[in-house]
Design a protein that fits this description.
alpha+beta; five-stranded antiparallel sheet; 27 helices; 12 strands; elongated; disordered N terminus
């Protein structure tokens, strides 16, 4: 049934972590964070402007052939459109002067533009005697002339902007494939003193995912070899790996189908966390085969370890069931995937292993207890004291960091490219946004203009800067007409100028004419204003339909809320687990069983504090993994016979070894998780040895 539901609606893989922590009601924030997810910026650097221009033309030609859509501006085409509608176009400063009837200042500004050595006029004097049109275009900035060569620090630069098709951008595999082609073009054109830099989210995603995939594949191979080595060393047979792999495969498949049936998409971190958690199921297999001796049938073994297996499953399910009732979709997905997978593996071991074991000739009678470690009382006491000191002292230094960007550190090459691009393009790091919504485009433009008046001297970018509303254009025409009627007479004879404002069509938005403005639309009748160095968000509330966002701060606050909620869930998880264990093993024994996991979480947190590693959302989520893995160690040690301790040791070593390798990867998110899990599982195992002696 789960498979039918999952296959009926093909599932997609989600890679954006923000979609799992940003509530659906705050879709604007998610849209803002994804604004540049499909965009690539290209910076051409050279010693000579001719070389830069030639390389840029070659890159553009090759890029368009590889599914990159140019979002540069055709300045000449836009100027022609503006000329037709110039009768309603005024810069904000000039419009303000005309509203005050300060015609003297307007004429002074005109004379200053005429005599400016760097000044120019876009129209003949008789067409634009007060240079109002030229003044308007100049106030738009450099956005209508992006193809110009920029001189910076004695070098010449040209900026090209592209974006991928949405279908490509939404598919990580397709996007990485296309970015790889663009990087190949970059390398081929970076020669003879010309350097081509690439920046943008797709480029960072490509390098991060490519490096991570190589590292994870290597880790997977090494981990598999380590498991094979342990099994060969202990069991002297490799055939037991077949049912172990089969049980994990069935669990992962069942978890996938269940999650796919309940959610429209599955986040990639769900696979990372949940398939790792299904590694808990290796414990079930190892305990079965360790306890399988010549004088015991498979059914006898199941009877012997049934209680341990069942309690282990029950406690793990209880821990992750709490996650399902959180307000975060990622945690819900992890809960569904993990619970379904573990139940499937449990049933596979209980129902099929007795049959499978008949085909595998195992004789553990002569194996003895190979890996049953036990610390001497004084050593155990010293270890406990040391761990307590680290925990208590480290907790005072615990700091948090909820900025997702801190989880990713780009290479020096990419950081250099981003730094140069920011300098040349003049990117302001203190950027915030206003999302404006209206009944139609004209209402949106009018609301943008209301916001603009509240901004004062704050610099901004918005659609209304390039396309005034019809209401504003009518107002500008009236102001210009009054100026002409009052001040044009001295110029009519000398310049053969008309005494009337030039008639023309209204300026309206058109995708073909203004392709770069398409990026200012977040949806139908919903636009975006970009503000620079703005620190008065409260005034935006004066305009109905306008909402202020500081993406970095807002997302950090949401991630913080998710981290806090996730941390709060740990308390009811431990209470629930203790209640279950108290019913099964009595209250005193329940404390002994759960204490290693609890202390391991505290010890790991304290160690992070001592090492000045800021605690983040993923560290807290890793605590659930520690509980899921390590609680089994205590349960099996408490219930098991002597041979079971070998299974506990092997389970711990396979997990710790894999996570230790993850801690050595270059991707900070994965490496930090690997470090936390390695520390938590190893400390939990040691504590289970100290707190649950072999006599029990």
């Amino acid at each position: 049934m789960l498979a039918f539901l999952a296959l009926r609606n093909p599932i997609t893989t989600e890679t954006n972590i923000l979609r799992t922590v940003v509530p659906q009601k705050q879709s604007n924030l998610l849209d803002l964070s994804n604004m540049y997810s499909a965009k690539i910026n290209v910076l051409i650097e050279g010693e000579e402007p001719e070389e830069v221009s030639e390389t840029a033309d070659k890159f553009d030609e090759l890029a368009v052939k590889n599914d990159l859509k140019s979002i540069s501006v055709d300045g000449n085409k836009i100027l022609e459109v503006y000329k037709v509608s110039r009768g309603g176009l005024l810069s904000a400063n000039t419009a303000e002067l005309l509203e005050k009837n300060d015609y003297k200042k307007v004429k002074e500004n005109t004379i200053e533009m005429i005599y400016n050595p760097l000044g120019f006029s876009l129209l003949e004097p008789e067409e634009d005697p007060f240079l109002l049109f030229t003044d308007y275009i100049m106030n738009l900035g450099d956005n209508i002339n992006p193809d110009s060569i920029i001189n910076h620090n004695d070098k010449y630069y040209r900026i090209l902007n592209y974006e991928f098709d949405k279908n490509i951008a939404l598919s990580p595999a397709l996007l990485n494939k296309q970015v790889k082609k663009i990087i190949k073009i970059q390398k081929s054109l970076s020669e003879n003193g010309v350097e081509v830099y690439l920046t943008g989210t797709p480029v960072h995603s490509y390098y991060a995912s490519s490096r991570s995939m190589v590292e994870i594949n290597i880790i997977g191979i090494i981990s598999a070899l380590f498991v094979i080595f342990l099994c060969l060393n202990y069991f002297k047979k490799i055939k037991i790996l077949i049912p172990v792999a089969g049980s994990i495969f069935c669990g992962a498949l069942a978890g996938y189908f269940a999650t796919a049936a309940m959610f429209p998409s599955i986040h990639v971190l769900t696979f990372v966390f949940s398939t790792t958690l299904i590694g808990i199921s290796v414990d079930y297999s190892l305990h079965f085969f360790v306890c399988k001796t010549e004088d015991k049938t498979g059914d006898d073994v199941i009877k012997e370890i049934f209680k341990s297996l069942s309690v282990s499953l029950l406690t793990t399910i209880s821990a992750f069931l709490v996650l399902y009732f959180s307000h975060t979709e990622l945690l819900k997905q992890i809960a569904v995937f993990t619970i379904t997978g573990l139940v499937t593996v449990y049933l596979f071991v209980v129902l099929f292993y007795p049959v499978i074991s008949r085909k595998i000739d195992l004789n553990n009678n002569n194996l003895g207890v190979r890996w049953n470690f036990q610390f001497k009382p004084q050593i155990a006491k010293n270890i406990l004291i040391l761990m307590a000191i680290i925990t208590l002292s480290g907790l005072f230094f615990v700091r948090t960091n909820d900025d997702i960007r801190s989880m990713y550190k780009p290479s020096k090459k990419l950081m250099h490219a981003e730094s140069i691009f920011a300098e040349v393009a003049g990117i302001n790091p203190k950027t915030s946004f206003v999302v404006v919504e209206g009944k139609n485009v004209q209402e949106v433009l009018e609301k943008e203009e209301q916001v603009a008046k509240l901004l004062g001297d704050t610099k901004y970018q918005a659609i209304s800067r390039y396309i005034p509303s019809i209401k504003t254009q009518n107002k500008n025409r009236a102001l210009m007409q009054k100026l002409y009627e009052t001040e044009i007479s001295p110029y009519t004879t000398a310049l053969n100028a008309s005494s009337k404002v030039p008639a023309g069509d209204y300026l309206v938005y058109d995708k073909e004419t203004f392709p770069f403005l398409e990026n200012f639309f977040l949806g139908e009748n919903k636009s975006l204003m970009i503000l620079y160095d703005f620190d008065k968000p409260e005034i935006i509330k004066q305009v109905e339909g306008a909402e202020y966002y500081n993406v970095r701060e807002d997302i950090s606050n949401l991630v913080k809320g998710c981290r806090v909620n996730c941390a709060k869930l740990l308390i009811p998880v431990f209470i629930l687990l203790y209640a279950l264990l108290a019913v099964i093993y009595k209250p005193k024994n329940a404390i002994r069983i759960i204490l290693p996991s609890l202390c391991a979480c505290l010890f790991t947190t304290g160690l992070l504090g001592l090492l000045h590693i800021s605690l983040n959302l993923f560290h807290v989520m890793a605590m659930f993994l520690i509980i899921g893995f390590s609680l089994d160690y205590s349960i099996f040690r408490f219930n098991g016979e002597k041979l079971v301790r070998d299974a506990v040791f092997m389970s711990c070593m396979t997990s710790v070894f894999s996570f230790l390798l993850l801690a050595l990867t270059g991707f900070k998110l994965i490496s930090s998780l690997g470090f936390v899990l390695t520390t938590g599982l190893l400390s939990s195992y040691i504590l289970s040895l100290l707190l649950i002696p072999k006599e029990e």
